[in-house]
Write a structure and sequence with these properties.
heterohexamer; A alpha/beta (125); B alpha/beta (96); C alpha/beta (124); A: 125 residues; 4 helices; C: 124 residues; alpha/beta; Hypothetical Protein Ychn, Chain: A; 5-stranded parallel sheet; 23% helix; DsrEFH-like (chains C, F)
Chain lengths: 125, 96, 124, 96, 125, 124
C-alpha cells in the first residue's frame, strides 16, 4: 500500500520542535511513506526566514528544510498572509528584497485545503 | 484517534485537554516536552485505571531530558514507530 | 486550483482566547477557506477557546478590528456546526446565555464523540 | 511587590505561580487576558480569605472581553492608575 | 519627584499585548513619568520588523512605536542576537538589506543592563 | 558603555523547560551579561523551569548544543545564588539528588522571600 502524508507546521524554528518535525519527515521517507507537502502556518512561517541566523555549531533547520525539498522534492508551502503578519516579505524591487528563503513556495490557504484533501494522513506539528 | 502531546502538562493545559477528549481505543503519543508528562499525576491515574487507552513516548526525547518511567503501561518507541502509529489511526490531534 | 481528490470532514479546534494571539483569527481564516472549497467543516471551542464565542465583546475598546463578528456569518460559508465544550464554559464561570446564539453546547463526551468523527483535525 | 498577570490561569500556570509567590502586602494587577482570572476559583478563594493581598484589574480590558465581577475585594482601574501602582511598589514580576 | 521608567518588551507584535504596552507608555508620559527607553528581547524583537504587514484598518503597532520615538525621543533598543534568531537582519549591501525598521537602535544586552540600572522602575511586558 | 548610575540586585526567573523554546538560553545570556557588569544577579527556577537544572540531560541526542553546561560555570561569572523551588521539584516527581550540585533547594516561602528582596525581576 502506498501511504501519503502531509505536514502542517505551526511552531517556530528557534526551538527543538522543528528538529522533531524534520526527523519525523525523514523517518516517514525511510519507511516508504510519500510526503506530499509541508504547509507552514502561524508561527511556523518563521521557518522560511532567509536571514534566520543560528550559530554554525547549532542545528541548521533552514538547511535541513531546503535539503528535504531538493533531495526529495517535498514542496514547502508558505502561507504568505501569516508570513507578512510576522515580518516576512515577498516583495522585490529597488527598495525591497524578498526575505523568504529559497525552496519555499509562496502560497495561500487554498494549498492547505489541497494538501489536506490529497494526503491519507495529515499531522500538525 | 492519535493524540500527540508536545508540551508539559504542568505548565499548560495540553495534557488535561487530551485526557478530557480521549475515548476508549485512542492512543496518546508523548513527544518533545510531552515526555515530561510521564510523571504527571493525571496521566499516571489514567494508566492505573487500565483504560483502553494506549500511551507511547519517544524514547530519545525522554532520554535527552533525563526523564524516566517505570510504568509498565507506557511504551518507549522510536520515530519510525511514530510513523506506524500515524497510519494506524484514522486521525490525530496535536495538543500544545 | 485543481479538483480536490477527495472530500473530507475537517474539524478546527479553538483552544485559545481571542485577543492575545493571532490563533483565533488564523483558525477562522482556515475554516472559511475549507468551507469555500466545500469541505465539510466544523468549529470546536474548548478551554480558553470558549472566550471567542461569548456575546457583547467589544474589540474596538482595545483598538482591535473585531474578527469575532464573522462568527454570525458562518452559515453563509456553509459552516453550521459550531460546538462548544460545556465543561470549559462552566469551569470559567460562564453561563449558556452568555454565548452566541448559533453555537451548540455539548457535554464533554458528546464534544469528544463529534471530534472523533472528523477526518482531519487542526488545533489552534 | 506588584504581580502583573497578562494571561488566563485556566490555560496556563500564570495565576498559580503568582499566587504561590505572593506575600502579604503584595498587589496583583490583572491586565489583558489576565482579566479572565476574575472568575478563577483560585483567585476567588484568595479574595475570600481577606489576605493582605490587593487585586486590581484594568477595567477597559475586562469590558472588551465581556468579563464581569461582583467581587468587592477587587478594584477596577484605568491605565493611569497602573502607572501609579508601578511606582508605589518597589519591584514587579510579569507572569505569563 | 522625577520618576523614570524603562520597559522590556518580550511579547510579539501581532497580538493585543503590544497595544497595551504602547498605551502604558502613553499613560506614563501623560502622568509626567520619563520613559528612558524600551528594550526589545525574545519574541518582542519582531516589533522591529520593517516588513510587518498589518491590514490598514487594524492597529499599526510599528507606526505607534516610531511615533513614540519621534515625538518623545524614547530610544527603542533591539537585541540584535535575539532578532537574528528570529529572521531579522541588519546587513546592508548588494545582496542584503536591513529588515529592521527605522527608529530602532541595534543594541546588545549591555543596553538592557544600562536601562535596568538607570530607571527607577522597570516593567517587563 | 558608560558607568552605571546604580547597582541593583537582579533576579532572573526561569519558568520554562529547556529545549522547546529559546527562553532558557536567552535568560542565561541576560544573567551572564548582568553578572559581567557586576550587578548582583540571582537565578530562580520554578515550575517547568526546574527541568533546566536536572542532571544527566543530553541535548546532543536532540542535535542541540547544550547551553545547560554553562550552569556549572556560573560561579566564574560571580553568579552564586541559584535557587530552585522545592514545591515545583516535588510536583514533577523529581528528587533533590536529581538536581545539579550547585543549586539551593528552597521552600515556597523562602523562595518567595528571596525573590522579593531583589530590585528588578525578569521572568522567562
Amino acid at each position: 500500500m502506498h501511504n501519503t502524508l502531509a505536514l502542517v507546521v505551526t511552531t517556530p524554528p528557534n526551538s527543538n520542535l522543528t528538529t522533531t518535525a524534520i526527523n519525523l519527515i525523514k523517518s516517514a521517507l525511510a519507511s516508504g511513506v510519500e510526503v506530499i507537502g509541508v504547509f507552514f502556518y502561524q508561527d511556523g512561517v518563521l521557518n522560511a526566514a532567509k536571514h534566520l541566523s543560528i550559530p554554525s555549531d547549532e542545528y541548521q533547520s533552514l538547511a535541513h528544510w531546503q535539503q528535504l525539498n531538493h533531495d526529495h522534492h517535498i514542496p514547502l508551502h508558505l502561507c504568505i498572509t501569516a508570513a507578512e503578519k510576522r515580518g516576512l516579505s515577498d516583495e522585490h524591487g529597488e527598495h525591497a528584497q524578498s526575505t523568504i528563503a529559497q525552496s519555499f513556495t509562496v502560497s495561500g490557504l487554498g494549498e492547505l485545503v489541497e494538501l489536506t484533501s490529497k494526503a491519507q494522513r495529515v499531522v500538525q506539528l | 484517534m492519535l493524540h500527540i502531546i508536545r508540551h508539559s502538562g504542568f505548565n499548560s493545559n495540553a495534557l488535561t485537554l487530551c485526557l478530557d477528549t480521549a475515548l476508549a481505543g485512542d492512543a496518546i503519543l508523548l513527544m518533545d516536552d510531552g515526555c515530561y508528562n510521564l510523571t504527571h499525576p493525571s496521566l499516571l491515574a489514567k494508566c492505573g485505571k487500565q483504560t483502553e487507552l494506549k500511551v507511547y513516548f519517544v524514547d530519545l526525547h525522554a532520554k535527552a531530558r533525563a526523564i524516566h518511567t517505570n510504568q509498565a503501561a507506557v511504551s518507549a518507541i522510536d520515530m519510525s514507530a511514530v510513523i506506524t502509529l500515524i497510519f494506524q489511526h484514522e486521525n490525530s490531534i496535536t495538543w500544545s | 486550483m485543481s479538483d480536490l481528490t477527495s472530500t473530507k470532514t475537517i474539524a478546527i479546534i479553538n483552544s485559545q482566547a481571542p485577543f492575545a494571539s493571532a490563533a483565533g483569527k488564523e483558525a477562522l481564516d482556515a475554516a472559511l477557506i475549507f468551507g469555500s472549497f466545500e469541505q465539510a467543516t466544523s468549529l470546536f471551542f474548548i478551554a480558553d477557546g470558549v472566550y471567542q464565542v461569548i456575546k457583547a465583546q467589544d474589540g474596538a475598546l482595545l483598538e482591535l478590528k473585531d474578527y469575532l463578528k464573522t462568527f454570525s456569518a458562518l452559515p453563509f460559508y456553509d459552516i453550521e456546526n459550531i460546538y462548544v465544550c460545556q465543561q470549559s464554559v462552566i469551569a470559567r464561570g460562564l453561563t449558556a446565555d452568555s454565548l452566541l446564539d448559533n453555537v451548540q453546547l455539548l457535554s464533554s463526551n458528546d464534544f469528544s464523540q463529534r471530534l472523533h468523527a472528523h477526518n482531519v483535525i487542526y488545533r489552534f
